[in-house]
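Mods, move this if it's the wrong board.
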Amino acid sequence: MKNKEFKELMTKSLEELNTELKNKKSELFNLRFQLATGQLENTSTITECKRDIARVLTIIRQRELSAKA
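Not the wrong board. Structure tokens:
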């Protein structure tokens, strides 16, 4: 995920972020399944997907903390 895409995530609503998180987790599941069956050619996509999930979770957490303050 590039800086531009990260900035786009920052502008999304909480509902959109939760949808994005659900999609990324589903994608990670599919990538792991492909890895187990030997169909995955580029294993670095798993790492990229994990990082994307972490970014989305970070933005959600930042919003939770700013709402409390």
